[in-house]
Amino acid sequence: MVDVAMLRHKDVAARYEHKFTWKEISDPIYGYTYFNREIEEKIINSLILQRLRYILQLQTAHLVYPGAVHTRFQHAVGVMHLAGLMVEDIISKILIYYGKEYLEDYDPDSLIQAVRLAGLLHDAGHACFGHAFEEALLWGNNRVPIEVNNHEKIGYKIVQLLLEDKIREFEDTYGLGHLYDILMSILDPDEPRDKILLIMRWLIKDSLYPADILDFLRRDSYYTGTNEYGYIDYERLYKNTYPYFENNKPLLLLDRNTWGEFRAYLYAKANMFEHVYYHSVNRAFDKLLKTILRKLDEELDLTGRVNDLAKGDPYGYLALTDVKMYDVMLEKALNTNGELSKLTYRLLIERKPEWKRVGREYILSSYQGSLAVKHILKLVFDKEYRRRIADKIREEVYDSLKDKGVDESDIWIDVLDISPVPRSILMPGKSGGANLLTLHIGKKKDKQIIKDRDVFLVEEGIPLMIIFRAYIRRGLHRLEYESIVTEKIRQTVNSELGINIDEYKKIIKEIYSELSPEKYEEEKITV
């Protein structure tokens, strides 16, 4: 039987692809990624994209995983490629199941090209050391205007300043009406009003499994050598995603037969965050790096470059790459005295961060019941609550170590969340993250897409957790502190959140004591 949707998909893809000539890049994740010479090659060969070759994708992770030296340039090209596959697929489904009117007078070729460019440019706003720069110098900094206080807003501004004329020229040359406006609607920190543009945006970001996340999980696991954590069947996910319109509101439905692949994706994401992005030593390096960046800001006025960008001069900001700052830091480490020299030497030469984890981490998991879930979600979305719990843990750990010559300032408590909500949603000024805890399930039947049900992900036992870790200044660490701190973290979290873990142990003992050994004699386990 002929799959009409697949034929339509080929028609949509062929029409777009035949407009251009194509080149390929060898890529370890997809085999090859493709870009057109007429538009995408010109953007790739611009300062905006080429500078991403000199910014590592994972900040300081290469100090823990030596293979993690891949760049944001590789990721950007990968997202463009994957987003292109996803947009061709979703547009073909809209055309076959709903009709051209659901594209809201936007040309399919313009939508496809805009989504591909959005994938290519989605990280254009990153400075040196990516999120570390953002957290150290942009978030909560009163010197930085709100319109440039995270990398998404900065990227939007850079595209606006440097690419508007070029992209509008592409519109006229290749008959791609509204290309620039579609692109900017996708990149804009605020959601677009048009339903079709909202769907296009979800393919890149702000949805449960956008191209950005699908690419970086697979790419990061490959380069860190942790393939066991990051494998994702991305093709099955996007090919079994359907557009749906409910009460004039657009949704993305996942085919109910792909529920297993979606759960595997969530577990892959959780594993990558727990074991790679949130590796305890990596977190200590990030903290050291952010301290260095703040001190360099005092000396070199890095924040001033952000402010110049807000005023219309992006070039000082665009020069802020890892390559440039590693050169600066190495000079500081080798040729100067003082605190900054000591810190940079520790990061680049000794590779010994100031903070060393003490005790075992405590993981608060959704498997611990509804009370735990309540506190997990509050810790995810309420920064003040998270800070209060961290302060309480630090007080208790200090109280247990103060007679051993440890000061409260010698203790750092790191509280980390792992949830299905994309971290981009949790940026300052963003909202709507709680809505992403719902997955819409559907089914394709004949010539209809039918909504089956809404799945509240927390109810389904998805990996949702908070990690609590304690660190002590490296020179003060003693082996005997390990068990003391482990128990103190456990006691404090359970006491503050009202969770009684001992009840679980009691229940297990009660059930096990009721079993008769004679009854199961013939079922002895041999493996």
Automatic annotation (TrEMBL):
HD/PDEase domain sequence ranges: 68-226
SUPFAM superfamilies hit by this protein: HD-domain/PDEase-like
Lineage top rank: taxon: Archaea
Single GO biological process annotation from the record: dGTP catabolic process
CDD domains per the UniProt record, alphabetical: HDc (cd00077)
GO molecular function per UniProt: dGTPase activity
Pfam families (alphabetical): HD (PF01966)
Name of the protein in question: Metal-dependent phosphohydrolase, HD region
